[in-house]
Amino acid sequence: MKWSRKTSNGIAYHYSVNASDSVNEKSTPIVFIHGVGLRAESWYQQLSVFTKHYHCYAIDMPGHGESDLLSNPVLTLEDFSDVLTTFINNVVGQPAIIVGHSLGAMMALQTAVSSPKVVLGIAALNAIYNRPDEAAQNVQARAESLINDLNQNVTEQPIARWFDGNPKYRSEAELCQKWLDNGSRLGYARAYQMFAHLRGIAEADLRPITVPALFLTGELDVNSKPEMSLAMANILPNADAVIVPEARHMTQMTHSNTVNAALAKFFTQCNSHNMTLA
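^ thats the sequence. predicted structure below, dont judge the formating
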């Protein structure tokens, strides 16, 4: 991955941009956004495939990887989507397809709501919608604990939830543990606190999104449940849902072949849709 750094509004963000030599300069750009506690490298199994056909950007979210913290101690989803909009305008330089995972998926959706002109399509992996009270309370309690004790173990619970101790995914679990352990604890805690208080994006805000959308999640994801993706796909006028069998939260890492096949089909749909509009 070729890394670059860009400063905007006093905040430096870290990103990669890659494309093979055969990719046309006019090809559709794709921006990949990771989830809480992770970093741009979590898309390595997608970037290795799609850089052969597209200009692919992967950004460290604020307070993650090598990107700066945002200055606000209490963050909103709009704060994150503003960073993404600025990134697309200032670095990508043209509207893009956004692929987001978990909080990154929510950033993608919020960007389509707040700044629709920069979005050509949205692939929302393991997103949430209408999070139930009990689930929200559990996540919020965890978020409060993280803010109050930045030195605590931040890996045990998410790794157990994401991989369920399956030895088949040991290398993926070890990578995620490394990213969680070595990342900014404050950046992680603030982002998690914001994410914990999200119930999802309201139906009234989702409905005007007319660009192609893909909602993908794992069959066994305990927080980003299949019914959430199915519900959002039913709201948007140009959306599909894919439920990956036996997958949990880290679908793009544990079930990359299935995810990549769904993304490849989706990118083709986006290109066809945008050619029709042109």
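Residues 3-129+199-277 form a domain with the Rossmann fold fold (CATH 3.40.50.1820).
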